[in-house]
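FORM 7B: Structural annotation worksheet

SECTION A. Query
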Amino acid sequence: MASTDTPSPSLDPGASDDPGWKAAWPFLVAVVIVLLAVGTIALFHVIKPGSERLTESAKVTRAINDYYTAKNAVNYEQFRSLSCPADLLQPSFPTDAAFEQAGQASRTEHGNITITDITETAVTGSSATANMHWRYTKNPKDAVLPITLVKASEDWKVCGAKGP
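SECTION B. Predicted structure
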């Protein structure tokens, strides 16, 4: 019978299962890479916010959406700020009271304006056009409304909207 005098490694009281810091290096490198990526993204958002990275067509779409959101909310200040400067000078431009009264009456009768799509956006310098596909919530019949916009101080403004 052969006898072995050396104990197995798992029975060695001096042996340790702790691999030390060497085993943690891949994890630490991955954490540093993730932190650098997140930091870079955050830095880009601080330097140039997402709203400044939009294309002109996207800015036109946003202006139309915001304009009709103001009408739905009967928010005169926002509606006025999104209206074309030439429209503001027209005697037919509604006053705060007239806007509120017309907005409440429209919402009661027809419901809110729902924009289903904005298509055929064309931007030419400081003017733009787009077709707004919309409907009232109480009348699900779709309609198309051509919208004209002008750029004033880097913001797009809705001009002469004939519709809801």
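SECTION C. Observations
The beta strands are 113-124, 127-136, 139-152, 155-159. The longest strand covers residues 139-152.

SECTION D. Sign-off
Analyst initials: ____
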